[in-house]
Amino acid sequence: MKKLNAMLFAAALAALGFTSCDEDDAAGxxxxxxxxxxxxxxxxxxxYTLSDISISQTELTITMPVTTQTSxxxxxxxxxxxxxxxxxxxxxxxxxxxxxxLNNSVTLTAAxxxxxxxxxxxxxxxxxxxxxxxxxxxxxxxxxxxxxxxTYDYSVAFFKGKFYAFTASGTGDASEYSVxxxxxxxxxxxxxxxxxxxxxxxxxxNDKLYIMGGVRLNEDMPEQGEGGSGTGxxxxxxxxxxxxxxxxxxxxxxxxxxxDESIEGSMEDPSDMFRVMAFRGLLGxxxxxxxxxNEKLYLESGTKYYGEFQSSNESFYCLSxxxxxxxxxxxxxxxxxxxxxxxxxxxxFIMCGSGGVISPTTLQTAVYSSEDGENFITASDxxxxxxxxxxxxxxxxxxxxxxxxxxxxxxxEGARVMNDKIYRTEDxxxxxxxxxxxxxxxxxxxRIVVDDNDIAYVFGGFLSCGEYxxxxxxxxxxxxxFAAWAFQLQ
Length: 490
Fold this sequence. Notes:
Layout: E1 8-9, H1 13-16, E2 35-42, E3 47-48, E4 52-56, E5 61-66, E6 76-82, E7 87-90, E8 93-94, E9 106-112, E10 115-125, H2 130-134, E11 136-139, E12 151-159, E13 162-169, E14 176-182, E15 189-193, E16 201-205, E17 208-212, H3 234-239, E18 246-247, E19 249-252, E20 259-260, E21 263-264, H4 273-281, E22 289-293, E23 296-300, E24 316-319, E25 325-327, E26 340-344, E27 347-351, E28 367-370, E29 377-380, E30 392-395, E31 402-405, E32 408-410, E33 416-418, E34 422-425, E35 431-433, E36 447-450, E37 455-459, E38 484-488
Parallel strand pairs: 1-4, 5-10
Antiparallel strand pairs: 2-3, 2-6, 4-5, 7-8, 7-9, 9-10, 11-38, 12-13, 13-14, 14-15, 16-17, 17-19, 18-21, 19-20, 22-23, 23-24, 24-25, 26-27, 27-28, 28-29, 30-31, 31-34, 32-33, 34-35, 36-37, 37-38
């Protein structure tokens, strides 16, 4: 869905030549009284207050083109300004007493001194927004619009016309892992508690929304004296035996009712998937990468929250029967920490990532592809994207073009920087840099969703990344971004 453009009557009141309706020359003068300004506010609290409202005093029409989806217009309030001594109603009711579905036209009646005019308000949805071509900043801080102030990590999904944010906030006994929803990606309301964890990742599969993996600092960390405290501890805690008991997985079919489908396993059986994932990540649980390919659910095991990258993201699973995750060992040729995985033109691609502690020599440039999800080949040794890790790649709804956002790389001076470019490809190996709003700043592991209108919403990520993962057991050591951007996929 698209962020609602702000709207306002573009012409000044003086230009309309309005006077009071009870003046001597009012009779027969079509412009002597009427509505001068209209504003609309959605249930989510987004207001149209600037530019591009068209009010015709001869046709008695009010036209408001907006860039949004129809669900944003189902429950709106209307405010109107009019000339002196003029009242505005709908069906004989004051505007402030009603809400309106602006997917349908609404008739506003202006009345003054026994005279009436009926204006037809029409809101038309359009996909045209010049700002979206290079990127529009929707908000610089989501924590000002419903997301808790203490949030330090979150992921986002777009499911059945609504945004879902899975947040981690607070520390110790005050930790919360909650779900927030939004109709526009900006204003959020809490929808559920006790779902997900730090670094949990969403995916949509078989018409259900999954949230998978994640670590809880208040539950998974060792107790004091066993390698670190529950809310910090750094390397000491990371090196200790984490209290991991399940691979957290929740699902919902309607966005309201959640089912716990967490995977329990044995830490004693070397072949048990839970044990493998726990050891590969100490945490194959932080930012795992679930995705759908050939109508099957796949899962990359994810990364550590602290420590070397060498043993991160070495596991690749397929849930082909709805119950059993089968490891695909052949995929290890392509897997790296913080690599980028995407499906394009019915092929699976894995590219970039880090082969160890992040450095100019460990960042990868190769692209691997697979037609069956099991056998991988080298599609390219190098691309215009270059060497980086922590980028996120999404595709358009048709699956014919892919777009790379963010990531960590090195500049010509050898400094570690964020990738501020956005690249596009139609074959997975030939990438072209797009024109981008100069204010856009790339992040490591941004969370990106594509709505039904091929608008890519770019949320968060991390503003920096050291030699290891951007995650930590100490919240203060992470540098999350809470900016949200929107880009029209070209």
